[in-house]
Amino acid sequence: MTAAARTEPAAPTVLDARGLSVRLALESGTIVPVRGIDLRVRRGEALGLVGESGSGKSLTMRALLDVLPEGGSRGGTVALETVAADGSRVPARAALVFQEPLSALNPTMRVGDAIAEAARARGVRPRAARALAVDLLAQVGVPEPERRARDWPHELSGGLRQRVMIAVALAAEPDVLFCDEPTTALDVTVQAQILALLDRLRRERGLALVFVSHDLSVVAQLCDRVAVMYAGEIVEQGPLGEVLAGPAHPYTAALLAAAPALDHRQDRLLPIPGTPPDPRAFPDGCRFAARCRFADEACRSARTELRVVGADRATACIRPGAGEGVFS
Ligand SMILES: Nc1ncnc2c1ncn2[C@@H]1O[C@H](COP(=O)(O)OP(=O)(O)OP(=O)(O)O)[C@@H](O)[C@H]1O
């Protein structure tokens, strides 16, 4: 796989979020851990949403799907629909793949039945749903699919379980597949196989992917575009190759320097010095300023809005490119 753009420019939009924010009502008060998120994903495109733990990736994804935790509400607009050439709008179907399939798969259901159930939820008849389950197991690379369809989730390895989870997701015939750290729990060889599978599915089916990860080098293997999150905001967005070659935000540059080598000799993220701010007390101005070696007074009082810095590229840094080359 390469990071080259593979998406037709004219591919229709399937997901369009504008000014998305998340508000959480907690016992200790209300917080806004995510704000001002603009995201657009086209058919067949893979968008990576990357950032450290706690940056708001999962809440953003849950807000996009309107499945926020208790006490959560979203602001802004989310259009999960395809816009045809004639301008008509058709709702887009979405499915979700999690990090830990064992907790997502029903332990009392054979894996074939779990896939068939997902197909039946969109009206497929029982016999056809069972046949589809075996077919989907084959499509996601599960060997001996007829036999494996009768297995229980706990009988499968982590990699096979993740393939089953992807088959469950595909049974819903999604236009957009949301993946939340789907390979984080897997060893690097199996991780590469699952990424290759997701890449094949999007090419064969025109599936759009929203791929959430803390690991930029994983995102780099799969995605055409990347949105970098920090402290609940997108701080940089653009085509993957361009962002990697010349990060326009010092946080992206720091993430890049901390990312495991693309050859996976290193399997964990090296921490960036300092810690992200608490959503209960986000600072005014640039939220990365306290950890940024280029920050000055202007940064601490600046309005951090994404600014266009090139074709299809945006950064929230008021000095785009300040950290370029310094962290690497
Ligand atoms: N139910 C909740 N109650 C209180 N705070 C929450 C809740 N869910 C998320 N948060 C807070 O919102 C912020 C964003 O969380 P989120 O889970 O979206 O981050 P993330 O980038 O997905 O992190 P991770 O990679 O660890 O999942 C964090 O500071 C988190 O502590």
Description:
It is a single chain. It contains 11 helices and 12 strands. With 328 residues, the protein is an alpha/beta fold. The protein folds into 2 domains: 1-93 and 177-328, 3-Layer(aba) Sandwich (Rossmann fold), CATH 3.40.50; 102-173, no CATH class. The protein has an 8-stranded mixed beta sheet, sandwiched between helices. A 4-stranded antiparallel beta sheet has the order 2-1-4-5, covered by helices on one side. A hairpin with a 2-residue loop joins strand 11 and strand 12 (313-315). Helix 4 crosses helix 6. The model is unreliable at 1-5 and 262-266 (pLDDT under 50). The structure holds adenosine-5'-triphosphate. Adenosine-5'-triphosphate (ATP) is lined by residues 24, 26, 33, 51, 53-59, 69, 214, 279. Adenosine-5'-triphosphate binds next to strand 1 and helix 1. Residues 17-256 form the ABC transporter domain. Belongs to the ABC transporter superfamily.
Tally of contiguous helical segments: 11
What's the rounded overall pLDDT mean? 88
Radius of gyration: 20 Å
Q: Going by CATH, what is the homologous superfamily of the largest domain?
A: P-loop containing nucleotide triphosphate hydrolases
Q: So, CATH architecture of the largest domain?
A: 3-Layer(aba) Sandwich
Looking at the structure, what is the overall shape? Answer: globular
CATH topology of the largest domain: Rossmann fold
Largest sheet: 8 strands, mixed
Unreliable runs, pLDDT <50, ≥5 residues? 1-5, 262-266
The proportion of residues in beta strands is 25-35%
- Give helix % range: 25-40%
What count of structural domains? 2
The CATH class of the largest domain turns out to be Alpha Beta
Number of strands: 12
> Which strand order spans the largest sheet, edge to edge or round the barrel?
6-7-8-3-9-10-12-11
Question: Termini, distance in Å?
Answer: 23 Å
Q: What structural category do the secondary elements indicate?
A: alpha/beta
The unique ligands bound to this protein are: adenosine-5'-triphosphate
N-to-C series of helices and strands: EEEHEEEHHHHHEHEHEEHHHEE
